[in-house]
Amino acid sequence: MSRRSGQGKASFLFLLLVALGLLVFLPSGSLFAGLDEAEAAMMDNLRRGVLLSVSWIFLAVGLLLVTLTLRKTYIWLKAVQKTRVPPTRYFNLQLQVRGPDGDLGVHNFDYFPVVVAAGGAADLLLPDVAGRRARFRIDYRYGQAHLSSDSSVIVNGVPRQSKPLKQDDRIIFGPYRLVFKDASIQEQSAPLPAKPIFAWQFPIVALLLALSVLFKQAGALPEDTMLLAKAAELYLM
After folding, report:
1. Any idea what the CATH number is for the domain that residue 129 is in?
2. Does residue 202 fall inside a structural domain?
3. Which residues of 156-186 are buried (b: 16+ CB within 10 A; e: fewer)?
4. For the chain, what is the largest distance between any 2 Cα atoms, rounded to a whole number of angstroms?
């Protein structure tokens, strides 16, 4: 059904172009040869009116395309202007936790310090640790994560109360093993809007303006054409 509809539209467009071509390129005498002088003059005026109307339509469509192009350009420039802001900064700290029963997953924190404790107020609560007051904290300073604790915590097999952390450092906390994955501040810039495509519009606008001029000249009165020719000759002199 859609294929037949497309063929019908193409046929209609072809016939319309043929009719307009006849109106433009054939002289009015050959078109209205079988009519008397009054009827031929009326039909010629009608022909000129159609040509001038089509000329204005081409001009209006061309100007509309130019206006839409300028509007799209303005909207794109405004969107680009909005992206020229400082990038968003966000913090991310990752700890992988493994318990007696297996992997407990990766915990992400978007703030610091992070307190890991067996009880009480904590950012990461890990029960079943001997001593309810057992806890340590991970802070972030000078571009690196730092572990600190009031009591010794085993990090990579060595008891520590304070230690800068590196990726994949292993922390033993009772029956749990925590693997430090990452701690960093990252920047994310706003994405740039896609640039509008105008390549196809410029030749179409040029074609519409050329057709507008062509149809306007074809629909002009002979006296107007002669005046335009004389004005052009005087200008060239």
Report:
1. 2.60.200.20
2. yes
3. eeeebeebebeeebebebeebbbebbebeee
4. 117
Give the SS3 label for residue 100: coil
Torsion over CA: 230, 231, 236, 237 (sign): positive
Eight-state DSSP code of residue 131: S
CA 13 – CA 38 distance, rounded (Å): 32
Q: Which amino acid is at 198?
A: F
Phi, psi of 200 (to 5 degrees): -80, -20
Q: Which helix (H) or strand (E) holds 142?
A: none
pLDDT score of 62 more than 80: yes
Taking only the tens place, the pLDDT of each residue in 176-199 is 999 999 999 887 777 777 887 777
Instruction: Indicate if the pLDDT at residue 216 is higher than 50.
Output: yes
Mean pLDDT for 78-106 is 87
Looking at per-residue pLDDT, the higher value among 11 and 55 belongs to 55
The Cα angle at residue 85 between residues 188 and 71, in degrees rounded to 5: 110
- Where in the sequence is the domain holding 26, given as residue range(s)? 2-83+193-231
